[in-house]
Amino acid sequence: MNWITNYVRPTINSIFSRREVPDNLWSKCDECGTMLFHRELKDNLNVCTHCGHHMHITPRDRFKALFDGGVFTEVAVPDPVADPLQFRDQKKYPERMKAAQKSTGEKEAMLVVEGEIGRTPIVAAAQDFSFMGGSMGMYVGNAIIAAAERAIKLKRPLVLFSAAGGARMQEGILSLMQMPRTTVAVQMLKEAGLPYIVVLTHPTTGGVTASYAMLGDVHIAEPNALICFAGPRVIEQTIREKLPEGFQRAEYLLDHGMLDRVTPRTEMRDELVTIIRMLLGLTPAVQGDLPAPVAEEADDTDAKAVEKT
Question: Which residue in 107, 100, 104, 121 sits closest to 76, CA to CA?
């Protein structure tokens, strides 16, 4: 009886109660190879708890951690012509777009929102590198213009998180035209006397670096982010010389005067609150728990009420 109770019954119960372990419970750090539990990694904003390596994070996850109570409202962005050049390589451009939309769950490579951080109203935009390499096309140009116009209308600062491999080749010259368009949008902010803060994440390259990503009033970068126009391998092959260690990484650019700060992602929110309130001439943010803002559609009346307070 003891043999049946102590061995047979537990064995049968374990067979019928056995559950399959999902494959996505653990993630491997690209830098140190440490296996990280997905909840622990998410709580640390996709930063390796072992070596501090900054992994990819989606704009929505970034904004949930950035805004008070994780509450923000999306800003509408005008839709451009779907396939202006009828471009096709191995796949048609619309097919690549549908695949990117399905894999990311996003409409395009940039998300524009508005909300409060540290009880300070802002407009924010972020690129998603997982959406066709965060490439800059007509939609991204429209998104930055929409963000700038919304910031000017509400008299709020604009915070932009860049992450891109450059211009979108499927849109050809039309993608390159976004460089002067976004430059004009940034100039509109400056003429309105509103702060424009850029957070450069890994990687920020090509035409994005040559336009709106390097036109901020303040430039902050995440640790070890690659920030450049032409990549290190291209430069090495061109000049046929070995580049310095860490060339074109955030820390190297900080040492050579191209950046103002290199700030870990887990400290970015407090850094932005301090800088924004300083640029706006406001008192330091109140430390401690604050009630989360109510999730509702923002309109001009609400925005003016927030500004008066």
Answer: 107
